[in-house]
Structure formats: C-alpha cells, structure tokens
Amino acid sequence: MSATTGATRPPQRSYHGNPVIKEPIWKPEIPWYFFTGGLGGGSAALAYLAELGGHEQLARRAWPIALGGIGVSPLLLISDLGVPHRFLNMLRMFKVTSPMSVGSWLLVAGGATTTVAATNALTGRLAGPARLAKPAAALVGLPISTYTAALIAQTAVPAWHGARRELPAIFAAGAAASAGAAATIATPVRHAAPARRVALAGAAAELLSVQAMEQWLGAVGEPYHVEQAGTYARAARALTVGGALLIGAAGARSRVAAAVGGGMVLAGAVCERWSVFKAGLQSARDPKYVVGPQRERVDGGRGHGASRRALDGRVAEGAR
Amino acid sequence: MSERLRTHAWPGTYDGEAKPRMGFFTDTSICIGCKACEVACKEWNRVPESPQGFTGDSYDNTVDLGANSWRHVAFVEQRKPLGIDAAERSLAEAANLDQLVAETGLQTYQEGDGLRWLMASDVCKHCTEAACLEVCPTGALFRTEFGTVVVQEDVCNGCGYCVPACPFGVLDQREGDGRVWKCTLCYDRLKDDQEPACAQACPTDSIQFGELDDLRERARARVEALAEAGAERAQLYLAGDDDGIGGAGAFFLLLDDPEVYGLPPDPVDATRDLGSTWAAAGVAAAALGAALAAVVLGGRR
Lengths: 320, 301
Description:
The complex is a heterodimer of chains A (about 325) and B (about 300).
Chain A: H1 29-52, H2 56-80, H3 99-123, H4 127-153, H5 158-161, H6 167-186, H7 193-217, H8 227-250, H9 255-285, H10 287-299, E1 307-311, E2 314-317
Antiparallel strand pairs in A: 1-2
Helix pairs in contact in A: 1-2, 1-4, 1-6, 1-9, 2-3, 2-6, 3-4, 4-6, 6-7, 6-9, 7-8, 7-9, 8-9
Chain B: H1 2-5, E1 22-27, H2 36-45, E2 71-78, H3 91-103, E3 116-123, H4 131-135, E4 141-143, E5 149-151, H5 162-165, E6 172-173, E7 180-181, H6 187-191, H7 197-201, E8 207-211, H8 212-228, E9 235-237, E10 250-254, H9 274-298
C-alpha cells in the first residue's frame, strides 16, 4: 500500500495511497438536479420561443414541463443539504465567487417567473404579469441550464475543474435535448415539429460536445471513460443516438415512436449528467489524478512555487 | 480578473479591530509523532471521536483531516536515506552513502536498519485565497480579524460546496450533524490572547504559533540550517505569498516532497479561474438561447 517504501521509486508517490482532496459529499439529488434544472430552464426558453413562433399547442405543453423541472429542483437541492431547514441561508447574501449562491438566486427568479408563465399558459389568468414573466423565465432559464457546470468546475476536483471550458456546453446541449424530447413526448405529432427539431439538434450537440471534451481534455479526461462514469457515458451515447434516430425516422408520423424516442433522449441526458458526476468523484478519490498533474507542473517549471528548498544558503524555488 | 472578483474578506475590512495575521509554523523535522496536538485539539474544541479502526499504515489510525480530525499526524516509513535515490545505485554504494548520512547526525534518521521515519502534524492551511470561503453560498465561512478562516456553526447549512473546493481536503461534513467542521485556529483562544491548544500541547515545539511574519523568518533560518546539515530535500511548504493560494496561515517545513505526506505539490485556488469558468457558462447559455431561437423560429417557413 505504502508507495514510499522499497528500493525502487514508483512513478508517483502518495501518502499510503490515500486521497489528497475530499470526495464531494453530494447525494444522488445533485446529478438529478443537473438534469431537472436543464430540463426546466431549457423548456422555459423553448415554451417562450414556441409562443413567439405561433406554436400555441407546443407552448401550452412546454410551460408546465418548465414549471415541473424548475419546481422540483429546489426540493432536490434542499433534500441534499446537511441541515435542510436552513435552506433560506442560501439567500443571506449574493456572491459571484460562489456559483451556488448565484444559482440560488437564479432559481428564485426562475421559479417565480415560470410559475406565473405556466399559470397563464394553463388557465389564461395573470395575463398582465405573464407578459413580463414569460420572456424573463425564458431568459433566466438559459443560465439555470449552464451555471451548474460552473458550480462543479469551481472546485479542486481535477475532472471538473480541468473541464471548466467544456462542461457548460455539454450541459447546455443536454438542456436543449431534454426540453425538446419532453415536449416531443407531450405534444401531438402534428404540433411538435419544432420540439422534434430541438430534440435532434440538442442530441447532436450533446454528442458532439462530449466528443470534443474527450479530445481536448486528454489525460485529464480519463475519469470520464472508466468505472461507473464510463458506463454512464456509454449508456448516454447509446440512448441519445437511438432516441434521436427514432424521433428523426418516425417521430413525425407515430406518437408512440415520438414518445419512446423522446424518453430515450431524456434518459441519455440523465446518464450524461451521472457520467459527469461520477467522473468527478472518481478523480477526487484517486490521488494519481490530483497529484499527477500538479507534480508535472512543478517538474516542468510551471508550478506556483508551493514548495521551496534551501539552496546555496538561501530559500529558493525548486522541485527536486 | 481574479483581483476584481475576489471577495472582500480580509482583515482590512475590520478597520481598527484588525489584528496581525496569526498562524502556525509546523516544523516536521522535530515532530515525534506523539499526537498530543490531536488530543489537545479534540479536548479543547470538543471534537467527537473519529474511529477509523486499525489501518496498518505505520502509526496512523487518524488517516486524514476531516470534520472530526482537525489535526492529523502523518507517519511515513522510508527505507530511502535522505537525498539519496537508492534505486539508481548499487547496494554497496547505497550502504556507503547510508554511512555518510548517519555521520551527519540528522536527528530524524533512525540508526540501524536504515529506516527513515517521517512524522508531520497536518492542519487547515488558513489560505490567503481560501477556495472554501469563496464558494460558501451562505457566508458561514468567514475571515476573522486574525486572518484565519472559520466556519460559523450557526450559519452553515451543510451544502457541502466547500468540501471539494478545498485543494487540501481539509473540510468535511460531520455525520449525524450535517454541517461542515474544520480547524478554527482556536478562534476563541486567540480572542483571549491564548495560543491554540495544539501548539500549547506540542512538547517539541514542532507546532509553533505566532504572527505569520515572525514565523516565516524563523522557518527560513531553520530550513537553511537543515540544508547545511545535509537534509537536501528539506523544503518550506506554503511559506510564501506567491503560490497558488497566495500563501497560507499554516505552513510547514517538510523533509521530502509534499505528496509524500499526502499534501498536494502545487495547490491552486479554483477561484483564480473564476473568470474563464463564468465566461464559458455565459457563452454556453447565450449559445443555447440563440440555437433554440434559430431552430424553433427558423423552421417556421
């Protein structure tokens, strides 16, 4: 176990193989929230745009989906807290350095505006407030779909922080795919053409952005391919491709095909979020992902100078 | 970018009530692994027990820092003598060099079978750029007038964000409690001009408490003396202002590389990349809006 004993020096050393950083303590609520937040935020934008484009039947169904996604999100987040009854402490302040703080306020704004918008879409009431609430809900829905990527990137977890430029694209694409797929399921086929297009474009963007992340991350991206994260990633790809093909081939004719295809795309988006979540846990758990890149930086002269040795009678920077 | 976005949480905001920055200098070269620091900390701060069982990893059954371990004494057993890579030399050569190291009279080197036993008492680093404090959404984590970083137990709602944000794995959630706990650098004792419990209990002064500037000066003299005595790998860890966390309130003198003790060799506060992280999220949100508009509205004809 101990990597420091023995005559040969292993390529990388650690303290009894123990983790260097703590594994996130977040429960399954969090990856599910990544999904519901994306679904809700994406659906609000889709609903508003459908209204603008004159797709009344589609909009009337997308608004309740948006409310469902954004409504269930705070419940998941509160349930994940160590002290749930203190959830209001999230609104003690607004901190731009804390994506979780920013997100809390986004959810407050998104929840209020989407509630008004969906109420109007379903009952016709609140027409006045809804004129403002609908574009506002659509606008707030966009960052609700992507800030969660910034949230996990803003940590010391190598697989997340290393992917800070790529993750938001994956989450945005997943939000579009989810919103399009859910609306495809809920809307009669002859009114669902824009939803199908959104589902297909979102699915394609999701597959492409995951592929791009794998290309760009290189070794840092290894946790996304192995163990549970790898299994989820493969499931996500299969479900997304299969669902998109089904929607594209038969979604315009068969409500059943549209529903099954939409369900598969939704499941694919869920699996993709789980893959990202698990990849973070895996990279935090194994010291090789934490120490490896840092040691490379130091040895390559690109370190930040955390360690300084005494050389020539004075303390100077130096690795070994 | 990071300058502008950095939280306003430095003692300067305390105006007249600001105190000199206080910290720990942990000189691991004179740590004897007695764990008095662990015990004193638990007793004073009423930290619950942390039963980890028997690990078999030398004398370390505490394993790591966490909600119920605010000091952690690491034990490393090395066969490799100081500054000598035995693998690259013949056995005869290594034995000869062994003799040389023994003659230098280094106190931490165990005579006899050539085993070097490293011990180090780890603790929260009280970073200048503290990622835990930056990401805390409730403001439970705050900067004290002494420049230390403390969790307010009556505010923390256990969101867990600080746990993976810390590049040292210091913070953790307490089971059955739900909140996050860590070293306070004995904030209550500091307010009464007392030194923290661990430093007071340390029998060898391996844990030294004081004003950070004084401690750094003392540490530089010590590492130079050790280097002169032949401890080639002796190094100061987090003793400057220009590392990835802007310097630490608790820094260390190590006899080998940080990772050997379970410390990250090049820790960086994730807040430094806040600008590019938010930019990527913003661009993705805008692209999502534009793409949805194009797909929904564009196909109308």
